[in-house]
Structures are given as C-alpha cells and as structure tokens.
Amino acid sequence: MQFFDTHAHIGLIYDDPIEQFRVIQQAKQAGVTRIISINNNLHDFKKEYAVLKSQKNIFHAVGVGPSEVTAPGDDWVKIIEDSVSLPNVVAIGETGLDYCKQYGDKRRQIELFIAQLELAQKHNLPVIIHNRDAGRDIFEILQDRLPERGAIFHCYSENAEYAKMCLDAGMNVYFSFAGNLTYRNARNLHETVFALKEMNALDHVLIETESPFMIPSEFREKKRTMPKMLSSTAKFLADMVEMDLEVLANQLWKNSCKIFGLPEE
C-alpha cells in the first residue's frame, strides 16, 4: 500500500537539506512514496529544487502564491516558463486568492492568479489552488479560465455545495483534504466528503499533509506535520466513506497520478 502526498512544504519543515532528506526517507518508510514539493515564491522554489532534484520520488510545482502579490519579481513569468521544462516539475502553483490575509489588493491578486492559469494552459499543466475566503471569485474565474489539465483545490476549505457546484459545472477539479479533515469540528469538510461519495465522485479526491501545517488530530501533540503522517488522514477518510483502507489508498493513488500526469507504476 502506498500513498501520494500531493502538497508538502518540505523547505518549511526543515531548512537543512540533511533533515529534509531524513523527512523524505521517513515518509518512504511510512508508505508515502511520492510527494509534491510546494513553495509560495520563486526564490524558495529554486532553492528547494536544487536540493531535492536528485530525489526521484519528489515532484515539484512552480508558481507565485497570493502572499507574494506585491513583489513577485520583474521576471517571474520567465522564471516559471523556464522552470516548467525541468525534470519532475508537474504543476503550476500554488497560486490562487487569499482574502483572509488581504495581501495587496484583490485586483492584483486576481491578475496574478489569471496569469498563472494561462501559463498552466499554455504548458499543459494542472494548477494548484490556494483559496481563503475567495471561493466565489475563484469559481467565476475558473468558469472561463480553468486549464484543460484541471485544478486542485488544495487543503479544501469550502463546503459541500461548492464542490457540487464545481462538478455540476463540468469542471475538471480535484478536492485535496489535509489533516484538518480529522478535526471533530470540521463539519464542512465531513459533509463535503459525504457529498462526493454520494455523487460517486471519489475519483476527484486527493489527500495531502500541507506539511508542516494542519497536524492530524492523532498527532496533535507534535509541533509540525510530516509527510510520514499522511496515512492518518487516509485512515480517517476510509472510515468516513466506509471503504477498506487499501482500496481507498489505491483510488487516491490513481487520482493523484492522473491529475499530475504521472505513471501509476
């Protein structure tokens, strides 16, 4: 049984490359055999890619998050375009909208998001979406600009109706659940999972650790989330949808490989 962590900020767990390699090895030992390395800015992407490029089971997304909207860099488009041809770069992101922290202004956030959706379409890549209190605007933008390869709502935070609305609109989108799915008060996430099961849409579900954030309830005494903890979220999800863990793990693996265009073997 193997797991695919679709969103982990390895560089935020530890800055030391030796510690990062240890994190990756511990993940492998726990059955997490593929990880998408995520960064919020291009400086960190270049730094992490240089460290992790020798790790064949680590894949990368490149993009500019909404937190960087005021200073993405003059050459940010060129850096992304140069980076998407690198080995193991499989997505644009994370990008999106964040109206909670109010980074810059909404107009500039939207411009930055749309530009990266267009890059994803141009380079035939999926996009990883960061969404905080911006669901309505993101939905409206995706109606016209969703890349053909699709999008991932990472660390899904909307409700069941939003997920239904996206699928009913025919959007090629996936819903990725992190450790907060295991929280007793995460009713919106639980209802979303039940709704997706009822819609026979579990083939649109992914899991992630969002390391080092979103610690699963099983590990609440820990200071940071690690990719090796991913199975805790998988087990919780399997119980919710009343599926054998191995069967669900296989489905999640297939889903992850499909959206990132990777072979299942």
Please characterize this protein's 3D structure.
- It is a single chain.
- The protein has 265 residues and is of the alpha/beta class.
- 43% of the residues lie in helices and 17% in strands.
- The protein has helices at residues 10-13, 17-29, 42-52, 76-83, 106-122, 135-145, 160-168, 187-198, 230-241, 245-260, and strands at residues 3-8, 32-37, 58-62, 89-98, 127-132, 151-153, 173-177, 205-207.
- An eight-stranded parallel beta sheet has the order 1-2-3-4-5-6-7-8, sandwiched between helices.
- Strand 6 (151-153), helix 7 and strand 7 form a beta-alpha-beta unit.
- Helix 7 (160-168) runs parallel beside helix 8.
- The longest helix has 17 residues, at 106-122.
- The chain is globular and about 50 Å long.
Q: Helical region count?
A: 10
Portion of residues in beta strands equals 15-25%
Q: Average pLDDT value? A: 97
The dominant shape is globular
Biggest sheet, spatial arrangement of strands? 1-2-3-4-5-6-7-8
Distance between the termini: 12 Å
- Contiguous runs where pLDDT drops below 50 for at least 5 residues: none
Task: Give a quick account of the main beta sheet: strands, pairing sense, barrel closure.
Answer: 8 strands, parallel
Summarize, please.
The protein is of the alpha/beta class and 265 residues long. Helix content is 43%, strand content 17%. Helix 3 links the parallel strand 2 and strand 3.
